[in-house]
Specification:
113 residues; 2 strands; 1 helix
């Protein structure tokens, strides 16, 4: 009888460990995958969904808020910095590289990634 009790307790403990492991894996997957999903939706709206308010297509640069300073009510960019001009573009490199020429920036920080 004590073997059955120990077996049940061990089984219950294993089920609890498995449940905990499943929850942990699901939480990790959510945290890992969330950014990829957000990026996909953003890229889709900018490059493929022609009826989107943000559609510009491929191989074109886009400046949210038409290059004006961003205020708190602007929601196209998550956690925007009001002193930063955001720009983005999706480039199709299938046929080869694309060269983007930018004027020299000497009085401010400039970054492209």
């Amino acid at each position: 009888m004590s073997n059955e009790t120990n077996h049940t307790t061990t089984e219950g403990s294993q089920e609890s460990d498995t449940d905990s492991s499943v929850v942990s894996i699901a939480e990790d997957a959510y945290l890992y995958g969330l950014q990829q999903v957000i990026y996909y939706v953003t890229r889709f709206n900018y490059t493929q969904k022609e009826d989107s308010n943000f559609f510009v297509g491929v191989n074109r640069l886009y400046y949210p808020n038409e290059g004006r300073p961003i205020t708190a009510d602007f929601t196209a960019v998550v956690t925007p910095n009001a002193t930063t001009l955001y720009g983005m573009g999706a480039l199709d490199l299938q046929d080869g590289p694309i060269v983007i020429e930018m004027p020299e920036v000497t009085d401010r920080y400039f970054r492209s990634s």
